[in-house]
Automatic annotation (TrEMBL):
Pfam family, one: PMI_typeI_cat
Co-factor binding details: Binds 1 zinc ion per subunit.
Biological-process GO terms, alphabetical: carbohydrate metabolic process
Cofactor(s) the protein requires to work: Zn(2+)
Active-site annotation: 194
Keywords: Isomerase, Metal-binding, Zinc
Binding positions (Zn(2+)): 100, 116, 174
Protein's name in the database: Mannose-6-phosphate isomerase
Gene giving rise to this polypeptide: pmi
Amino acid sequence: MRFISFKPIYQQRVWGGRGLEAKLGRSLPDDQPYGESWEIVDRPEAQSVLHGAELSGLTLRAALEKHATELMGPDWNSQTPFPILVKWLDCQERLSLQVHPPADIAPSLGGEPKTENWYVADSEPSAGLIVGLKKGATREEFERRLADGSLEECVHRMKVSPGESMFVRSGRIHAIDGGNLILEIQQNSDTTYRVYDWGRVGLDGQPRQLHVEESLQCINFEDFEPETIKPAPGEQTLVESEIFNLTKRELRAGERLEFSANEQPRLLSVVQGSVRDLEDGAKVPTGANVLLPYESAFTFVAAKDSVVLITDGFAHG
């Protein structure tokens, strides 16, 4: 079984724009602002459709039900949803200040835990990330500033450059500035609690819903001034966690990238350049996110200087 590609699902967002078109060469459905491309998703409300492989035309859910062992390994329960959700985020304006519920709190709120990683593929010179609290900030100050509209004074903002990475565990307060193109690799969850939205209205002209009480139950008020992982040459570990692992590989033109069969399924994301499968010559271009099935071995070669992300450690059965 060869690598599996997916048809993107584009999502309009009030903070989005046309960056997916301009920077990734995508063809967007219409002239509306698109902020997200759901690249790989297995949820009741959204299903990736496979293409360009033996399973072309199947939804991800159907593919897992019919080919769980080949795709995920012999211990995988075919009824278990695919555990990772991959998105491109085109942030033309700042996103809301938000939090995702930790696993021990999510059930009581009717939500799902959501831990994620951001890889900054492109950013404008003024772009930044807001993650965690400023040192010394307290819950009392947070609630007071939330009430008087000065919340930006107690959250931690940092400037970012392309190639930086930020791990955002459930419970970590966060927002993404405008001017960022980000690949988000996350738990399969769509639970987000907005605590503050900078006075913005939605695409319908109405203020967007906030979830203040839920947010206050979820925020880690001991999380002060985390920093991004800066890019390093060669191979670099970005995430080691119980949810997934993430590795960055820089490849020179002509360099090979090899994966053995019958170890684990993996996701391959090309964030710069392109690679091709040596067996059949199929190209994985900039912006693509593909599944490398458990049962298959792969050898890719970089068509030019390239950067790829490898997600693994997620097939827990």
